Amino acid sequence: MAQGATDVTPLDYTRYDFKNPETYRLRIAKGLTREVVEQISDFKKEPDWMREYRLRAYDHFVQRPMPDWGPSLAEIDFDSYTYYANPLLEGETKRSWDDLPADIKNTFDKLGIPKAEREFFGGVGAQYDSGTVYHKIREDLTAKGILFTDTDSAVKEYPDIVRKYFGKIVPYNDNKFSALNSAVWSGGSFVYVPPGVDAGIPLQAYFRINARNVGQFERTLIIGDKGSKVHYIEGCLPAGEEVLVGDRLTPIEGIETGQSVLNSDGQETTVEKTMVRPFDGELIDITPVSVGNAFQLTPEHPVLCVRRSRVTTSLRPNRALSDIDPAKLLSTPPEFVPAGELQPGDFIHYPINRTERDDPTLGEDELTVLGYYLSEGCVQMINGCEAVTFTFHIDETEYVDELSRSIRAITGKTPWTNRQPAKHAVVVGVYSKPLYALCLEHGGKYADQKRLSKSVMDLPPEKQRVLLETYYNGDGNVYERFGTVHRALTVSRQLAFQLQELQARQGIFATINVREPFQETMEDGRQVSHKRAYTVYYQVGKRAEAVRRAGDAFLVPVRKVSRTPYHGNVYNFHVAGQNNTYLVKGFSVHNCTAPIYSTDSLHAAVVEVVAEPYSKVRYTTVQNWSKNVYNLVTKRAVAYENALVEWVDGNMGSKITMKYPSVYLRGRGARADILSVAFASQGQIIDSGAKAVHSAPDTSSKIIAKSIAIRGGQTSYRGLLHVAPGATGVKAAVRCDALLPDELGRSDTYPYNEIHEEDATITHEAVVGKIGEEQIFYLMSRGLNESDAIHLILMGFLAEFAKELPVDYALELNRLIQLEMTGAVG
User: Fold this and answer.
1) What whole-number distance in Å separates Cα of residue 747 and Cα of residue 751?
2) In the CATH hierarchy, which top-level class contains the domain 242-348+564-590?
3) Quick one: which of 598, 346, 498 has its CA closest to 488?
4) What is the rounded distance in angstroms from the CA atom of residue 200 to the CA atom of residue 3?
């Protein structure tokens, strides 16, 4: 989004078609009567003026006929809907996410709303059916005088402001559905940004319809006072941070669509899309007790953990870990917490890899050899022949004998030995092309590049135990310190993390420490350079403050949290399935921006936006309602002197949508930019557009409407450009572009231009086009299939819209259109 604007981004679309049991503290029977309206007002304990407003709106709703233009709404039965269903009692809107009922928290987790978005955007609201269940604003924004709460609370807490603006931009008698909303409205957001305030962080809202046949009628009121500003931010990881993909760590910037990664359940999942954006700020450095697993991420990125404050034995815990209640720790479910909120002593979540695929070609002898090869072996060409050699201490005869037996079992050859007393060493070797290939394939080549293959990493844990035992025989040692310590040293970073993962599958959390490179002077004066090395160790009988096993995961204490300035790109990605998580250095984090889709019923919202003189307000919405939702909303803004209002409006779902974001330009020099996009597929009618009403001189507006209708979908542009008498010097432009990729879609344009001043400069352009066969042929000649070629053309058509979206939403738009294209051709 453009900076220097008040951006309000309601993510009012749901990702998954699931339902919770319908348990409500307050619920009114189906149907709409005057008594129902009175009940809603009574439940809310509203002032008399709001009750009277509702009743006037209800009377107008009853008298007002259904629209006789646009899509047919004849199938709507207003008595089949429930107009109020609240999972909380009125006045119970929560300021802490922990206070919400478990089923509601789980719902928003399933919808992909991470705790980072709940707590690290400037302000976030969450609505569940008729009730606003959660609302919170950051304390630093409150200190600036910014007001952000649910509209129900605002009626009581800020009555003067609400009464001044409520219903003034969209009066109840504007249309039948504004009357319906005004009569039964519940929830929504109230925003007030004081003059000259730059919040520097976004305000967002989430809406969820859970129950069958429950309408949602939120009411949003946004007031941007003179010069107010907000910019957009979301959470990611910096370049170079590494994600666990099962057999290795991969830098996040190298993650690709279709790649397999591990999630917080320890299961493989597939990357659906990747994201990148610029970031200029402080990264959070998380250092667990295993310091080699330290990782970085942006402050709002959610990390799965158990907060130490929830599992202590005292009310005032100290910095030591001895006050942890073990039973409480193991029984407390982990939660996603923004990285910037983590504290030393919190326990972060390290899941055990549960992938298991046996490979019959890797038996006990092969794994025995591989364990010794990783610790003591190398592959080399000797006199033109493939050879594998191993170097042991001269007294390690037991290990030499074990290795020799396994080599004979695999190759049929007796290995040769070369004792070197002066070096206290013995070398074991064999000429064998198959063994040479086995070690290369499953163990790598050079000491600092040794790693285990995917086949070894996926073996059953009992087979992996054989490799671990022989590896520790070769490169490990044992000593006593607060219990028995088993330690191994490797110069291969990749191997160190793989060993840690294999130990976890044995029920052991192994710690990784890093020894930095250094120079050593020997007794004979020689200078010896030591590479960076990684110590992988674990303890038996460790003290009570050790890492704890909790089911199929370990809870690992955080040792240190710090911040590092960063300027550059940061990365993120979505994965398939409802568990939208992945592992960073083995620890569970959540994707930050999972989209939301709603499931059923009637949605009739009202949004009122006030842009006071010289203010800048941007309202962005991207909706993908399920295809049995009537989406009938009224969204309108008023712009005063030299104010700027920007609507960025995307519509990609519902059974029928009727939505026409409008700007009334009431002050000299006011400006409006409206960008509207509609995408309709089979069974959908998207009737959308925009309105610009010029009531003051020297005002300007630009409306760009783009639509795509495919597979029988219908789109319509319905717009109004009005220049009132006295509004001189107006400049206005309207452009309508429609694309019909096949023979089944339909697109219509209904522009209304009412110009009452002769000096107005007005342009209007409307184009309906098809995808040319030559375009498809050209792209297919470059290697694309027909479906991908059409998809690329569609995204090029929508590029003007996509570039105005945050990167995440633009990528989501791309994915949704790609899904709609599946099966469209070929």
Assistant:
1) 13
2) mainly beta
3) 498
4) 9
pLDDT at 121: 39
Cβ neighbours for 203, distance < 8 A, ≥ 6 positions apart:
7, 8, 9, 121, 122, 123, 124, 148, 189, 191, 230
- Helix and strand counts by DSSP (H, E) for the chain: 19, 48
Question: 99: which 2 tokens?
Answer: 């206070």
Q: Are 551 and 332 in contact (CB under 8 A)?
A: no
For the domain covering 355-450, report its CATH number. Answer: 3.10.28.10
Indicate where the chain has its CATH 3.10.28.10 domain(s).
Answer: 355-450
Where does 656-806 have alpha helices with state H?
A: 773-781, 786-797, 799-802
10 Å Cβ neighbour count for 273?
Answer: 16
pLDDT value of position 466:
95
Alpha-helical segments (H) within 668-772: none
User: In the numeric block, which tokens belong to residue 772?
Assistant: 């040319």
Q: Cβ(707)–Cβ(717) under 8 Å?
A: yes
Q: Residue 168 has which token pair?
A: 């003034």
pLDDT digits 0-9 by tens, 739-768 = 888 889 999 999 999 999 999 999 998 888
With 60 as the cut, is the pLDDT of residue 1 above it? no
What pLDDT sits at residue 27? 66
Could you give the dihedral angle defined by the CA atoms of residues 94, 96, 101 and 102, in that order, rounded to the nearest 10 degrees? Answer: 150
Res. 802: pLDDT tops 70 = no
**Residue intervals in the chain for CATH 2.170.16.10:** 242-348+564-590
d(CA 538, CA 503): 9
CA distances from 479 to 491, 536, 542, 544 (A): 21, 14, 13, 19
Nearest to 719 by CA among 770, 771, 765: 765
- Residue 38's SS3 state is helix
Beta carbons of 606 and 662 less than 8 angstroms apart: no
Instruction: Count other C-beta atoms under 10 Å from residue 543's C-beta.
Output: 10
User: Are 287 and 560 spatial neighbours (Cβ–Cβ below 8 Å)?
Assistant: yes
Torsion angles phi and psi, residue 274, rounded to 5? -115, 155
Reported as a single tens digit per residue, the pLDDT across 689-713 is 999 999 999 999 999 998 989 889 9
Cβ 263 vs Cβ 222: under 8 Å = no
Q: Are 270 and 258 in contact (CB under 8 A)?
A: yes
Name the average pLDDT for the chain: 81
What values do phi and psi take at 99, rounded to 5? -80, -10
41 touches 130 (CB < 8 A): no
